[in-house]
Q: What sequence folds into this?
C-alpha cells in the first residue's frame, strides 16, 4: 500500500511546490505526493520555476491547489513549510504535522530563493530517509 505525503503552505506557489517536486524526483514509487495551500495563489512564483529549472526540474505545468479535507484525511505524513501569517497557517487545520519553518520565497532575490530551494531539497532527502527507516 502506498503512503500519501502532503506538503502544505499558504499560497502553494513556492515552498510546498518545490518540496513536492523534490519528493517526486527522489522518493521511491510507493509514495504518492502532493502539495496544497490554504489560500492558493493563481500561479507559481516565476523565480521558483527558474531556480528549479537550473537544477533540471521543470515546474512550468504545476498549478497551485487548495488544501482539502480529503487531502488531510488521507495523508500519512503532512509537512507544513512554515507560516508568517498565523490566520491562514495550514498547521492550524492539520494535526500531527512536521513543521519545517522555511521562509517564503515571495519577494526574495534569486540567490535567496536558491538557498530556500537547497534547504527544501535537504529536508526532503532527510524525510525520505526517515520514512524508509
A:
Amino acid at each position: 500500500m502506498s503512503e500519501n505525503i502532503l506538503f502544505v503552505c499558504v499560497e502553494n506557489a513556492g515552498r510546498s511546490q518545490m518540496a513536492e517536486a523534490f519528493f517526486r524526483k527522489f522518493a521511491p514509487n510507493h509514495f504518492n505526493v502532493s502539495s496544497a495551500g490554504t489560500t492558493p495563489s493563481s500561479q507559481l512564483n516565476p523565480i521558483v520555476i527558474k531556480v528549479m529549472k537550473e537544477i533540471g526540474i521543470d515546474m512550468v505545468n504545476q498549478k497551485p491547489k487548495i488544501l482539502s479535507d480529503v487531502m488531510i484525511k488521507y495523508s500519512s505524513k503532512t509537512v507544513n513549510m512554515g507560516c508568517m501569517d498565523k490566520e491562514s497557517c495550514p498547521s492550524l487545520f492539520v494535526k500531527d504535522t512536521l513543521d519545517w519553518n522555511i521562509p517564503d520565497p515571495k519577494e526574495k532575490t534569486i540567490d535567496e530563493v536558491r538557498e530556500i530551494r537547497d534547504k527544501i531539497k535537504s529536508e526532503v532527502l532527510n524525510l525520505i530517509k526517515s520514512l524508509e527507516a
